[in-house]
Amino acid sequence: LGLAFAYGQARRLPEAITAAMTGVEINPDISWYRRWLGMMHLQNGEAETALEVFRQIEDEPQRIMGLVMAEHALGRQAESDALLKELLEIKWGVTPFQIAYIFAFRGDNDEAFEWLEKSAVMGSQVSDAATFPMLLNLHDDPRWLPFLERIGKSPEQLAGIEFNVTRHE
């Protein structure tokens, strides 16, 4: 789980895909691995492959999250919109951060920032925002850096963190 996520955050997509595939093989019932695998395929421009991965997810909210993005990537906006409406009606299993990155992936920046703000208030997963691959569409938006600053994750704030590593021999 951690390795697949780290590779994805670092935009090392082939490695992220391989690590997520290993996670699926080892733990086929954990929907997170499949969703992450599908998202990495989307980032790698493989929307059809991602769609097939998402379809295999048994957990309904997790499956719908992926399908919203895959249908969008395939240019099927009506299908993506219908699935998004269904997802927003689900009252469990979906965090504001997840909704934010779905909107960001779809290019709906206003909605994405609205949900990121909700996520920041709740503190749920927003700490990953600075490097989360599904938020890449927001990086050129003038609201991006001020948002990162508000949550303490701007490039300058992160660069200012000092690490004192000592080796024990």
Overview of the structural elements:
The protein is mostly helical and 169 residues long. The protein has helices at residues 2-9, 13-26, 31-43, 47-55, 60-73, 77-89, 96-106, 109-122, 144-150, 155-159. Helix 2 (13-26) runs antiparallel to helix 3 (31-43). It is globular.
Which key phrases capture this entry?
10 helices, 64% helix, 169 residues, mainly alpha
Order of helices and strands: HHHHHHHHHH
Radius of gyration over C-alpha positions, nearest whole angstrom: 16 Å
Largest pleated sheet: none
**Total beta strand runs:** 0
What distance separates the N and C termini?
A: 30 Å
What's the overall average pLDDT, rounded? 93
Helical residues, percent: 55-70%
Shape: globular
Quick recap of the structure?
By secondary structure, this protein is mainly alpha-helical. 64% of the residues lie in helices and 0% in strands.
Q: How are the secondary structure elements laid out?
A:
Blueprint: H1 2-9, H2 13-26, H3 31-43, H4 47-55, H5 60-73, H6 77-89, H7 96-106, H8 109-122, H9 144-150, H10 155-159
Helix pairs in contact: 1-2, 2-3, 3-4, 3-5, 4-5, 5-6, 5-7, 7-8
